Amino acid sequence: MEVPEGEVDYVVHSLFAPAPLPEMEVWFRKATGRLVAIAREKRSKGALLCSTGAVYKNDSGGPIPEDAARFGAGDPLSYPRIRSQVEDDWLSGLQSAETTATLIRGFAFVGPRFPLDGQFAIGNFLRDALSGGPIVVRGDGTSIRSYLHAADLAIRLWFVLLAGKAGEIFNVGGSEPITIGQTAQTVADCLCPSEGVRILGEAGSFSHYVPSTSRIDQSFHLPTPIPFREAILRTAHWLAPAGRNIP
Fold it and tell me: Are 103 and 51 in contact (CB under 8 A)?
């Protein structure tokens, strides 16, 4: 990575890593160390790590607070453990620096450029709807998520980067829980109401992946997030092929 000449006021660490896991661990730790070194060398004002809610062990069944248990060094090698280690490397590497180091843990989002390749349930639902429907839910639809539009994500990143205090950690995501089945039905109601939803009920594990957002909501004067239905429509407008009529 070439370091820009001159001042670097802010550093944002938002990286995806390749699999398999051993290579991912090495890649993440090298990249994190390099970005920490740049922030220290340039005496950057702020440095923000974009982490993930996947670091939480999440056995509470309710909104997850920032002080919930995380995966750690004693756990088997996994994506959540690797991301937890990145957080530790980030905060410890900048602890004595002039740079204000912060991090966010992102949850589930929707918006422009959202992938429709099968990794995220709502992306699959949007793909099905934009293809004419019906929307297919492979599991039983009972797992719980919450969603935030990418524009609201960006706003929160700016607030944390520019106004966060050293060492602060914030969950970023939607605060309104919704089941996967309800998510599919909402997408159908917005985009293909005549086709509806098919729930296949394939075996899977239940998960409750919803952040507690009280810390970030109380720390900053944030605008009201885009409502979920509007977020779906905005995303569909961006993703729809030319000529497709979106309500």
Answer: yes
